[in-house]
Protein backbone atom coordinates (compact mmCIF):
# COMPACT_ATOMS: atom_id res chain seq x y z
CA UNK A 1 0.00 0.00 0.00
CA UNK A 2 2.81 2.37 0.90
CA UNK A 3 4.58 1.68 -2.40
CA UNK A 4 1.42 2.58 -4.31
CA UNK A 5 1.22 5.86 -2.36
CA UNK A 6 4.79 6.87 -3.27
CA UNK A 7 4.23 5.76 -6.88
CA UNK A 8 1.20 8.04 -7.03
CA UNK A 9 3.23 10.97 -5.67
CA UNK A 10 5.91 10.35 -8.30
CA UNK A 11 3.40 10.25 -11.15
CA UNK A 12 1.75 13.40 -9.82
CA UNK A 13 5.11 15.19 -9.77
CA UNK A 14 5.60 14.37 -13.44
CA UNK A 15 2.46 16.33 -14.29
CA UNK A 16 3.16 19.22 -11.92
CA UNK A 17 4.20 22.33 -13.93
CA UNK A 18 7.56 23.90 -13.23
CA UNK A 19 7.59 26.98 -11.01
CA UNK A 20 7.01 29.94 -13.26
CA UNK A 21 8.50 33.31 -12.36
CA UNK A 22 7.83 36.90 -13.36
CA UNK A 23 10.10 39.93 -13.23
CA UNK A 24 9.49 40.49 -9.50
CA UNK A 25 10.33 36.86 -8.77
CA UNK A 26 13.52 37.15 -10.83
CA UNK A 27 14.51 40.26 -8.89
CA UNK A 28 13.90 38.57 -5.52
CA UNK A 29 15.87 35.52 -6.64
CA UNK A 30 18.80 37.69 -7.77
CA UNK A 31 18.98 39.34 -4.34
CA UNK A 32 19.64 35.94 -2.77
CA UNK A 33 21.66 34.37 -5.59
CA UNK A 34 23.97 37.02 -7.01
CA UNK A 35 27.38 36.77 -5.32
CA UNK A 36 28.28 40.36 -6.14
CA UNK A 37 25.20 41.64 -4.35
CA UNK A 38 25.96 39.44 -1.33
CA UNK A 39 29.52 40.79 -1.25
CA UNK A 40 28.16 44.35 -1.28
CA UNK A 41 25.88 43.47 1.62
CA UNK A 42 28.86 42.26 3.64
CA UNK A 43 30.77 45.43 2.72
CA UNK A 44 27.91 47.53 4.09
CA UNK A 45 27.79 45.39 7.23
CA UNK A 46 31.54 45.87 7.73
CA UNK A 47 31.23 49.65 7.25
CA UNK A 48 28.62 49.83 9.99
CA UNK A 49 31.26 48.80 12.51
CA UNK A 50 33.18 52.06 11.97
CA UNK A 51 30.85 53.96 14.29
CA UNK A 52 31.42 51.50 17.13
CA UNK A 53 35.17 51.68 16.66
CA UNK A 54 35.25 55.50 16.56
CA UNK A 55 33.03 55.76 19.63
CA UNK A 56 35.35 53.42 21.52
CA UNK A 57 38.10 56.09 21.48
CA UNK A 58 35.77 58.45 23.37
CA UNK A 59 34.97 55.92 26.09
CA UNK A 60 37.16 54.89 29.04
CA UNK A 61 40.13 52.70 28.25
CA UNK A 62 41.44 50.33 30.93
CA UNK A 63 44.44 48.01 30.84
CA UNK A 64 46.00 45.47 33.15
CA UNK A 65 49.77 44.88 33.35
CA UNK A 66 51.79 42.26 35.19
CA UNK A 67 55.51 41.54 35.51
CA UNK A 68 57.93 39.04 36.94
CA UNK A 69 61.72 39.48 36.91
CA UNK A 70 64.63 37.57 38.48
CA UNK A 71 68.11 39.17 38.55
CA UNK A 72 71.40 37.37 39.25
CA UNK A 73 74.49 39.63 39.04
CA UNK A 74 77.79 38.10 37.88
CA UNK A 75 80.02 40.00 40.31
CA UNK A 76 81.19 37.99 43.41
CA UNK A 77 79.28 38.53 46.65
CA UNK A 78 76.51 40.38 44.78
CA UNK A 79 73.05 39.75 45.98
CA UNK A 80 70.44 38.24 43.62
CA UNK A 81 66.82 39.25 43.83
CA UNK A 82 63.44 38.84 42.16
CA UNK A 83 60.47 41.14 41.72
CA UNK A 84 56.91 40.82 40.54
CA UNK A 85 53.75 42.86 40.55
CA UNK A 86 50.80 44.15 38.61
CA UNK A 87 49.22 47.44 37.66
CA UNK A 88 45.86 48.70 36.47
CA UNK A 89 45.54 51.84 34.37
CA UNK A 90 42.48 53.70 33.12
CA UNK A 91 42.23 56.67 30.74
CA UNK A 92 39.20 58.77 29.84
CA UNK A 93 39.28 61.40 27.13
CA UNK A 94 37.86 64.68 28.40
CA UNK A 95 38.43 66.74 25.26
CA UNK A 96 39.78 65.70 21.86
CA UNK A 97 38.28 67.46 18.85
CA UNK A 98 40.04 65.08 16.48
CA UNK A 99 38.36 62.01 17.99
CA UNK A 100 35.00 63.75 17.87
CA UNK A 101 35.53 64.46 14.17
CA UNK A 102 36.44 60.81 13.60
CA UNK A 103 33.22 59.76 15.30
CA UNK A 104 31.10 62.08 13.16
CA UNK A 105 32.93 60.89 10.04
CA UNK A 106 32.20 57.28 10.95
CA UNK A 107 28.47 57.96 11.05
CA UNK A 108 28.68 59.58 7.61
CA UNK A 109 30.66 56.58 6.36
CA UNK A 110 27.84 54.27 7.46
CA UNK A 111 25.27 56.34 5.57
CA UNK A 112 27.56 56.39 2.53
CA UNK A 113 27.89 52.60 2.65
CA UNK A 114 24.09 52.31 2.72
CA UNK A 115 23.82 54.62 -0.29
CA UNK A 116 26.45 52.70 -2.23
CA UNK A 117 24.64 49.46 -1.42
CA UNK A 118 21.41 50.98 -2.76
CA UNK A 119 23.21 51.93 -5.96
CA UNK A 120 24.52 48.40 -6.46
CA UNK A 121 21.07 46.98 -5.74
CA UNK A 122 19.46 49.27 -8.31
CA UNK A 123 22.05 48.31 -10.91
CA UNK A 124 21.33 44.64 -10.22
CA UNK A 125 17.63 45.25 -10.83
CA UNK A 126 18.38 46.98 -14.13
CA UNK A 127 20.64 44.09 -15.15
CA UNK A 128 18.00 41.50 -14.25
CA UNK A 129 15.21 43.35 -16.06
CA UNK A 130 17.35 43.91 -19.16
CA UNK A 131 18.26 40.22 -19.26
CA UNK A 132 14.64 39.23 -18.63
CA UNK A 133 13.52 41.36 -21.58
CA UNK A 134 16.41 40.10 -23.72
CA UNK A 135 15.12 36.54 -23.26
CA UNK A 136 11.60 37.57 -24.27
CA UNK A 137 12.86 39.64 -27.20
CA UNK A 138 14.87 36.73 -28.58
CA UNK A 139 11.92 34.40 -28.11
CA UNK A 140 9.61 36.77 -29.99
CA UNK A 141 12.17 37.01 -32.77
CA UNK A 142 12.22 33.21 -33.01
CA UNK A 143 8.42 33.08 -33.13
CA UNK A 144 8.35 35.72 -35.87
CA UNK A 145 11.02 34.02 -37.95
CA UNK A 146 9.28 30.64 -37.55
CA UNK A 147 6.12 32.19 -38.94
CA UNK A 148 8.13 33.72 -41.79
CA UNK A 149 9.82 30.41 -42.55
CA UNK A 150 6.47 28.63 -42.65
CA UNK A 151 5.04 31.27 -44.96
CA UNK A 152 8.09 31.23 -47.24
CA UNK A 153 7.97 27.44 -47.35
CA UNK A 154 4.36 27.56 -48.49
CA UNK A 155 5.28 30.14 -51.10
CA UNK A 156 8.18 27.98 -52.27
CA UNK A 157 6.02 24.86 -52.54
CA UNK A 158 3.37 26.78 -54.42
CA UNK A 159 5.93 28.36 -56.78
CA UNK A 160 7.43 24.96 -57.59
CA UNK A 161 4.02 23.48 -58.27
CA UNK A 162 3.04 26.36 -60.54
CA UNK A 163 6.39 26.17 -62.35
CA UNK A 164 5.93 22.47 -62.97
CA UNK A 165 2.60 23.09 -64.67
CA UNK A 166 3.94 26.10 -66.56
CA UNK A 167 1.85 28.70 -64.69
CA UNK A 168 4.86 30.59 -63.25
CA UNK A 169 8.50 31.28 -63.99
CA UNK A 170 11.55 30.03 -62.14
CA UNK A 171 11.99 33.55 -60.78
CA UNK A 172 9.10 33.00 -58.35
CA UNK A 173 10.81 29.90 -57.00
CA UNK A 174 14.11 31.71 -56.53
CA UNK A 175 12.41 34.62 -54.74
CA UNK A 176 10.63 32.32 -52.30
CA UNK A 177 13.84 30.37 -51.70
CA UNK A 178 15.77 33.58 -51.00
CA UNK A 179 13.13 34.68 -48.51
CA UNK A 180 13.27 31.28 -46.78
CA UNK A 181 17.07 31.41 -46.57
CA UNK A 182 16.98 34.93 -45.11
CA UNK A 183 14.43 33.83 -42.50
CA UNK A 184 16.68 30.89 -41.60
CA UNK A 185 19.61 33.26 -40.98
CA UNK A 186 17.42 35.44 -38.77
CA UNK A 187 16.25 32.36 -36.89
CA UNK A 188 19.81 31.23 -36.18
CA UNK A 189 20.73 34.72 -34.97
CA UNK A 190 17.70 34.80 -32.67
CA UNK A 191 18.54 31.34 -31.30
CA UNK A 192 22.04 32.52 -30.42
CA UNK A 193 20.72 35.63 -28.66
CA UNK A 194 18.21 33.54 -26.75
CA UNK A 195 20.87 31.12 -25.52
CA UNK A 196 23.14 33.96 -24.36
CA UNK A 197 20.30 35.80 -22.61
CA UNK A 198 19.06 32.63 -20.91
CA UNK A 199 22.50 31.81 -19.53
CA UNK A 200 22.91 35.35 -18.22
CA UNK A 201 19.51 35.20 -16.55
CA UNK A 202 20.39 31.87 -14.99
CA UNK A 203 23.68 33.37 -13.79
CA UNK A 204 21.98 36.36 -12.17
CA UNK A 205 19.01 34.59 -10.58
CA UNK A 206 19.74 30.87 -10.40
CA UNK A 207 16.34 30.24 -12.02
CA UNK A 208 15.54 28.09 -15.02
CA UNK A 209 15.06 30.60 -17.88
CA UNK A 210 12.59 28.28 -19.60
CA UNK A 211 10.13 29.01 -16.78
CA UNK A 212 10.09 32.75 -17.46
CA UNK A 213 6.63 34.27 -17.82
CA UNK A 214 5.84 36.18 -21.01
CA UNK A 215 4.39 39.63 -21.55
CA UNK A 216 0.77 40.43 -22.32
CA UNK A 217 1.56 42.58 -25.31
CA UNK A 218 -1.75 44.39 -25.38
CA UNK A 219 -1.22 45.86 -21.90
CA UNK A 220 2.23 47.36 -22.39
CA UNK A 221 1.16 50.79 -23.61
CA UNK A 222 -1.33 51.31 -20.76
CA UNK A 223 0.35 49.99 -17.63
CA UNK A 224 2.66 52.82 -16.57
CA UNK A 225 1.45 56.15 -15.12
CA UNK A 226 2.46 59.28 -17.00
CA UNK A 227 4.30 62.13 -15.25
CA UNK A 228 5.82 65.37 -16.47
CA UNK A 229 9.52 65.98 -16.92
CA UNK A 230 9.40 68.50 -14.07
CA UNK A 231 8.06 65.79 -11.75
CA UNK A 232 10.91 63.41 -12.61
CA UNK A 233 13.51 66.19 -12.25
CA UNK A 234 12.18 67.08 -8.81
CA UNK A 235 12.18 63.46 -7.71
CA UNK A 236 15.72 62.95 -8.97
CA UNK A 237 17.17 65.97 -7.15
CA UNK A 238 15.50 64.85 -3.92
CA UNK A 239 15.98 61.07 -4.06
CA UNK A 240 18.84 60.17 -6.41
CA UNK A 241 21.33 57.85 -4.74
CA UNK A 242 24.12 59.26 -6.91
CA UNK A 243 23.48 62.77 -5.62
CA UNK A 244 23.14 61.46 -2.06
CA UNK A 245 26.53 59.76 -2.29
CA UNK A 246 28.22 62.96 -3.51
CA UNK A 247 26.51 65.01 -0.77
CA UNK A 248 27.80 62.60 1.86
CA UNK A 249 31.28 62.93 0.40
CA UNK A 250 31.00 66.71 0.95
CA UNK A 251 30.00 66.12 4.60
CA UNK A 252 32.96 63.82 5.07
CA UNK A 253 35.31 66.46 3.67
CA UNK A 254 33.86 69.06 6.03
CA UNK A 255 34.52 66.80 9.00
CA UNK A 256 38.04 66.19 7.72
CA UNK A 257 38.65 69.96 7.83
CA UNK A 258 37.43 70.06 11.43
CA UNK A 259 39.80 67.23 12.23
CA UNK A 260 42.68 69.06 10.55
CA UNK A 261 42.09 72.19 12.65
CA UNK A 262 41.67 70.02 15.77
CA UNK A 263 45.35 69.04 15.53
CA UNK A 264 46.21 72.46 16.99
CA UNK A 265 43.69 72.17 19.82
CA UNK A 266 44.66 70.90 23.28
CA UNK A 267 43.88 67.31 24.25
CA UNK A 268 42.82 66.58 27.81
CA UNK A 269 42.73 63.14 29.40
CA UNK A 270 41.84 61.88 32.85
CA UNK A 271 44.28 59.18 33.95
CA UNK A 272 44.11 56.85 36.95
CA UNK A 273 46.41 54.00 37.95
CA UNK A 274 47.02 51.45 40.70
CA UNK A 275 50.13 49.30 41.09
CA UNK A 276 51.32 46.56 43.43
CA UNK A 277 55.04 45.60 43.34
CA UNK A 278 56.95 42.98 45.36
CA UNK A 279 60.78 42.66 45.56
CA UNK A 280 62.58 39.79 47.30
CA UNK A 281 66.36 39.69 47.86
CA UNK A 282 68.36 36.43 48.03
CA UNK A 283 67.89 34.50 51.25
CA UNK A 284 71.60 33.61 51.24
CA UNK A 285 72.53 37.17 52.10
CA UNK A 286 69.66 37.71 54.48
CA UNK A 287 68.10 40.29 52.12
CA UNK A 288 64.81 41.82 53.04
CA UNK A 289 61.57 41.79 51.02
CA UNK A 290 59.86 45.00 50.01
CA UNK A 291 56.25 45.57 49.00
CA UNK A 292 55.06 48.78 47.36
CA UNK A 293 51.47 49.67 46.60
CA UNK A 294 50.03 52.92 45.39
CA UNK A 295 47.39 54.69 43.36
CA UNK A 296 47.44 57.83 41.28
CA UNK A 297 44.94 60.03 39.49
CA UNK A 298 45.50 63.12 37.39
CA UNK A 299 44.71 65.13 34.31
CA UNK A 300 47.07 65.31 31.36
CA UNK A 301 47.05 68.12 28.80
CA UNK A 302 48.97 68.07 25.54
CA UNK A 303 49.09 70.64 22.77
CA UNK A 304 51.36 70.84 19.73
CA UNK A 305 53.38 74.05 19.37
CA UNK A 306 55.27 73.42 16.16
CA UNK A 307 55.14 70.55 13.66
CA UNK A 308 57.37 71.79 10.88
CA UNK A 309 54.49 73.24 8.85
CA UNK A 310 52.90 69.82 8.29
CA UNK A 311 49.64 70.71 10.05
CA UNK A 312 49.16 73.87 8.00
CA UNK A 313 49.90 71.97 4.81
CA UNK A 314 47.38 69.29 5.75
CA UNK A 315 44.73 71.94 6.36
CA UNK A 316 45.30 73.42 2.91
CA UNK A 317 45.07 69.94 1.39
CA UNK A 318 41.73 69.05 2.96
CA UNK A 319 40.29 72.49 2.13
CA UNK A 320 41.10 71.88 -1.52
CA UNK A 321 39.55 68.43 -1.29
CA UNK A 322 36.36 69.97 0.11
CA UNK A 323 36.16 72.27 -2.91
CA UNK A 324 36.70 69.22 -5.13
CA UNK A 325 33.83 67.33 -3.44
CA UNK A 326 31.52 70.33 -3.83
CA UNK A 327 32.27 70.53 -7.53
CA UNK A 328 31.69 66.80 -7.85
CA UNK A 329 28.31 67.23 -6.16
CA UNK A 330 27.40 70.03 -8.57
CA UNK A 331 28.53 67.87 -11.51
CA UNK A 332 26.42 64.96 -10.22
CA UNK A 333 23.32 67.15 -9.99
CA UNK A 334 23.84 68.39 -13.54
CA UNK A 335 24.54 64.89 -14.80
CA UNK A 336 21.39 63.52 -13.17
CA UNK A 337 19.38 66.37 -14.63
CA UNK A 338 20.67 65.51 -18.10
CA UNK A 339 20.23 61.78 -17.51
CA UNK A 340 16.62 62.22 -16.38
CA UNK A 341 15.87 64.37 -19.42
CA UNK A 342 17.38 61.76 -21.79
CA UNK A 343 15.63 58.84 -20.12
CA UNK A 344 12.35 60.73 -20.01
CA UNK A 345 12.63 61.31 -23.75
CA UNK A 346 13.46 57.61 -24.19
CA UNK A 347 10.25 56.72 -22.35
CA UNK A 348 8.18 59.17 -24.37
CA UNK A 349 9.71 58.01 -27.63
CA UNK A 350 9.38 54.38 -26.58
CA UNK A 351 5.67 54.75 -25.92
CA UNK A 352 5.18 56.53 -29.23
CA UNK A 353 7.17 53.81 -31.00
CA UNK A 354 5.03 51.06 -29.47
CA UNK A 355 1.80 52.71 -30.56
CA UNK A 356 3.12 53.52 -34.03
CA UNK A 357 4.47 50.00 -34.57
CA UNK A 358 1.20 48.48 -33.39
CA UNK A 359 -0.52 50.46 -36.13
CA UNK A 360 2.21 49.56 -38.63
CA UNK A 361 1.83 45.86 -37.82
CA UNK A 362 -1.90 46.08 -38.37
CA UNK A 363 -1.39 47.81 -41.71
CA UNK A 364 1.23 45.28 -42.81
CA UNK A 365 -1.04 42.41 -41.83
CA UNK A 366 -3.79 43.83 -44.04
CA UNK A 367 -1.25 44.37 -46.83
CA UNK A 368 -0.07 40.75 -46.55
CA UNK A 369 -3.62 39.44 -46.62
CA UNK A 370 -4.41 41.62 -49.63
CA UNK A 371 -1.27 40.44 -51.43
CA UNK A 372 -2.13 36.80 -50.78
CA UNK A 373 -5.67 37.35 -52.02
CA UNK A 374 -4.37 39.28 -55.04
CA UNK A 375 -2.05 36.42 -55.91
CA UNK A 376 -4.96 34.00 -55.89
CA UNK A 377 -6.90 36.11 -58.37
CA UNK A 378 -3.83 36.89 -60.48
CA UNK A 379 -3.32 40.60 -59.79
CA UNK A 380 -0.29 40.14 -57.49
CA UNK A 381 2.88 38.18 -58.13
CA UNK A 382 4.72 35.80 -55.85
CA UNK A 383 7.33 38.51 -55.34
CA UNK A 384 4.64 40.84 -53.99
CA UNK A 385 3.61 38.24 -51.43
CA UNK A 386 7.20 37.51 -50.41
CA UNK A 387 7.95 41.19 -49.89
CA UNK A 388 4.73 41.70 -47.93
CA UNK A 389 5.58 38.72 -45.76
CA UNK A 390 9.06 40.07 -45.07
CA UNK A 391 7.69 43.53 -44.25
CA UNK A 392 5.16 42.06 -41.84
CA UNK A 393 7.80 39.92 -40.10
CA UNK A 394 10.12 42.92 -39.72
CA UNK A 395 7.33 45.02 -38.20
CA UNK A 396 6.46 42.19 -35.80
CA UNK A 397 10.03 41.95 -34.56
CA UNK A 398 10.39 45.72 -34.27
CA UNK A 399 7.23 45.95 -32.19
CA UNK A 400 8.37 43.19 -29.83
CA UNK A 401 11.74 44.88 -29.29
CA UNK A 402 10.11 48.31 -28.85
CA UNK A 403 7.84 47.03 -26.09
CA UNK A 404 10.72 45.71 -24.02
CA UNK A 405 12.85 48.79 -24.68
CA UNK A 406 9.98 50.97 -23.48
CA UNK A 407 9.65 49.03 -20.23
CA UNK A 408 13.41 49.05 -19.65
CA UNK A 409 13.50 52.80 -20.32
CA UNK A 410 10.83 53.30 -17.66
CA UNK A 411 12.89 51.33 -15.13
CA UNK A 412 15.99 53.34 -16.02
CA UNK A 413 14.08 56.59 -15.53
CA UNK A 414 12.84 55.43 -12.14
CA UNK A 415 16.42 54.56 -11.18
CA UNK A 416 17.63 58.05 -12.09
CA UNK A 417 14.84 59.57 -10.00
CA UNK A 418 15.64 57.39 -6.99
CA UNK A 419 12.31 55.57 -7.13
CA UNK A 420 13.47 52.11 -8.05
CA UNK A 421 13.74 51.03 -4.40
CA UNK A 422 10.01 51.58 -3.77
CA UNK A 423 9.11 48.84 -6.26
CA UNK A 424 6.13 50.78 -7.66
CA UNK A 425 7.45 50.81 -11.23
CA UNK A 426 8.31 47.13 -11.06
CA UNK A 427 4.83 46.36 -9.73
CA UNK A 428 3.22 48.22 -12.63
CA UNK A 429 5.32 46.31 -15.16
CA UNK A 430 4.47 43.00 -13.53
CA UNK A 431 0.80 43.72 -14.24
CA UNK A 432 1.55 43.19 -17.92
CA UNK A 433 3.21 39.81 -17.34
CA UNK A 434 0.94 36.81 -17.79
CA UNK A 435 1.04 33.45 -16.09
CA UNK A 436 2.03 31.77 -19.35
CA UNK A 437 5.63 30.61 -19.64
CA UNK A 438 7.86 29.98 -22.63
CA UNK A 439 7.41 26.25 -22.01
CA UNK A 440 3.75 26.62 -23.04
CA UNK A 441 4.48 28.71 -26.11
CA UNK A 442 4.07 26.95 -29.47
From TrEMBL:
Signal peptide start-end: 1-20
InterPro entries: OMP_efflux, T1SS_OMP_TolC, TolC-like
Subcellular location: Cell outer membrane
Parts forming coiled coils: none
Keyword Lipid metabolism part of the UniProt annotation: no
UniProt KW keywords: Cell outer membrane, Membrane, Signal, Transmembrane, Transmembrane beta strand, Transport
Family according to the record: Belongs to the outer membrane factor (OMF) (TC 1.B.17) family.
Matches recorded under PANTHER family: OUTER MEMBRANE PROTEIN TOLC (PTHR30026)
Protein name (record): TolC family outer membrane protein
